[in-house]
């Protein structure tokens, strides 16, 4: 608490009130910054809840800026009445104060497994379990990600049983969609390149590239221009044009040559 007097000298009013609430209590690591975060974020209509939030920060229950923001958002939703009662249990649930038990996660995952059971039975282990992960997050946003993933894996295994030989094979349906998508992308790219090329005649496609820097985008553009010209039996003209030639390293020139060859 040796730094508190200095903070009070420069602190905004809300921070002074928060520090007065702290008194002589020892602050957990990072709590000072969280008190400052609280002081500058809290809205006037919920400023009367400052002591409550300060106590939670000092106790280490609101131990991140994300949780402090969640607490402010929750209190704003309650309204602007000074004498409004705060449901502490609900408050702690919304702000990530209350620990989420493995039983809570398991119960919710089981419920979601039943919700998706038809799709699960059809797709089995090819089912995209991230859908369930996302829905768990919507209900238990403070749940530990690793615990949720483990619970989903266990419940899917309990529901479907061990993997069969068919489950171990790649999903042909997904592969077909992927191939179709890639073919479509390639076709669209060719159309775009044909439209943007400088010339296209009986002798093939003619493109050109002005190299102005050794950036990744320039390298990619060189590859595309030369690759497109080669694919259609044409030629590509490369003119190196830089305003600071004296500082260019030789490896850049040789790199372009190696790339083209």
TrEMBL record:
Record-annotated Glutamyl/glutaminyl-tRNA synthetase class Ib catalytic domain positions: 221-261
Residue stretches of biased makeup (Basic and acidic residues): 167-206
An MF annotation (GO) of this entry: ATP binding
Segments forming domain Glutaminyl-tRNA synthetase class Ib non-specific RNA-binding: 14-145, 148-205
Keywords for this protein: Aminoacyl-tRNA synthetase, ATP-binding, Ligase, Nucleotide-binding, Protein biosynthesis
SUPFAM superfamilies, A to Z: Nucleotidylyl transferase
Annotated region (Disordered), positions in chain: 167-212
UniProt xrefs under Gene3D superfamilies: 1.10.10.2420, Glutaminyl-tRNA synthetase, non-specific RNA binding region part 1, domain 1, HUPs
UniProt-listed GO biological process terms: glutaminyl-tRNA aminoacylation
One GO location term (cellular component): cytosol
Family: Belongs to the class-I aminoacyl-tRNA synthetase family.
Name the UniProt record assigns to this protein: Glutaminyl-tRNA synthetase class Ib non-specific RNA-binding domain-containing protein
């Amino acid at each position: 608490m040796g730094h508190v007097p200095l903070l009070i000298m420069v602190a905004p009013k809300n921070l002074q009130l928060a520090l007065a609430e702290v008194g002589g209590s020892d602050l957990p690591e990072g709590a000072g910054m969280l008190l400052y975060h609280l002081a500058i974020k809290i809205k006037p209509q919920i400023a009367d809840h400052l002591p409550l939030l300060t106590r939670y920060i000092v106790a280490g229950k609101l131990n991140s800026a994300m949780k402090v923001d969640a607490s402010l958002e929750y209190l704003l939703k309650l309204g602007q009445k000074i004498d409004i009662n705060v449901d502490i249990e609900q408050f702690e649930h919304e702000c990530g104060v209350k620990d989420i038990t493995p039983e809570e996660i398991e119960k919710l995952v089981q419920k979601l497994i039943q919700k998706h059971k038809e799709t699960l039975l059809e797709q089995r282990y090819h089912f995209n379990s991230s859908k369930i992960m996302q829905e768990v997050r919507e209900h238990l946003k403070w749940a530990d990600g690793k615990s949720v993933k483990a619970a989903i894996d266990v419940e899917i295994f309990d529901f479907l049983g061990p993997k069969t030989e068919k489950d171990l094979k790649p999903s042909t349906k997904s592969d077909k969609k992927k191939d179709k998508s890639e073919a479509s992308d390639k076709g669209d790219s060719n159309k775009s390149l044909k439209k943007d090329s400088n010339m296209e005649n009986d002798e093939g496609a003619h493109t050109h590239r002005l190299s102005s820097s050794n950036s990744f985008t320039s390298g990619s553009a060189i590859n595309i221009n030369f690759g497109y010209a080669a694919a259609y039996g044409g030629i590509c003209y490369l003119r190196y044009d830089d305003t600071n030639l004296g500082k260019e390293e030789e490896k850049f020139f040789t790199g372009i040559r190696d790339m083209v060859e």
